[in-house]
Design brief:
Blueprint: E1 8-13, H1 19-31, E2 35-40, H2 42-51, H3 59-67, E3 73-77, E4 95-101, H4 103-110, H5 117-127, E5 132-136, H6 143-154, E6 158-159
Helix pairs in contact: 4-5, 4-6
InterPro entries: Flavin_trans-like, Flavoprotein, UbiX-like
Organism: Halalkalibacter wakoensis JCM 9140
GO molecular function: lyase activity; prenyltransferase activity
Amino acid sequence: MIEGFKGIFTVGITGASGAIYGVRLTQELLANSYKVHLILTEAAWRVFQEELLLDTSDREAILDELFGNFGGELHTHDLHDYGAPIASGSYQNDGMIIIPCSMGTLSGIAHGASDNLLERTADVMLKEGRKLIIVPRETPLNQLHLENMLRLSKVGAKILPAMPGFYHLPKRWMI
């Protein structure tokens, strides 16, 4: 563990609906003094526009607006930066959460594609036996979706569908 940090996590945000889940998780990790490596897909930026109503023409400004006042340490990575430290099994971290996770990304991970940094980092988590949490956002699910989730579950990933509970009487839904 790095002095001054509780731990190190990688967060992936894909183009599945529910970008707010990934934003809030990242904010909470940073607020609680974690080091966070963040990977956003191009489709995630599109969802930021459509669901969070953000003008993403200045991505650095958006990242600062969303995550700049939370403490911790944020490292953002380009989706095609295969030289990023998180792409290597020798980089020690506590795990990875892909939230929300599109079925396309889930399929790529389930089949070992490693076509981008997000998929490669997930593959590293699995091969090193580290925590990988996948938060799928899709409905209805078809047989391929279910088989890909089962495939990932069998190799150690945790599948945690975004199904918010209402028994705790939530009062706030947005940023």
